[in-house]
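chain below, 159 aa
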Amino acid sequence: MGSRSKIKLAYIAGFLDGDGSLMLQLKKRSDSKRAIRFMTTICFYQDTRHAKTLYWIKEVLGIGYISNRNDGMTELRINGYKQIREILKSLLLYIRFKKLQAHALLQACEILSNTKFSKLTKKQLAKLVDLILVIQGENYVTKKKKTKSELRKILGLTP
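prediction:
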């Protein structure tokens, strides 16, 4: 990888450290037998007046969608286990403040990329619950998040 590419990745990692978030969530789902799914997300935020940076990040990474929020903010959102895994692998060396979250999300992406939801073992599901808690424990939380016991119950991991 050339030095220009490394500089771009370092800049994006720094932006993620300051104005981004890493998320691993359980989401309701209506289109399958299981009423839930795991969702992995990297999100970058910027004041709408300065949204050009987000378009540049999207171009460099080659993925994501940009939306303007009603509060004057614009966000670049990237979803998908395999995509997130590859992005995190390329940024991890440069991430400083969200390294714990990045490692946890990368572990989750490895599990979810290699195993269909219906084939996840109880051990893998329990590990994913632990990873959700690591990530949300490091995030700035504006809403109440589910507890370990609530997540385990949703996934059928309670006796």
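Residues 3-154 form a domain with the Endonuclease I-creI fold (CATH 3.10.28.10). DSSP finds six helices and four strands in the chain.
thats it, cya
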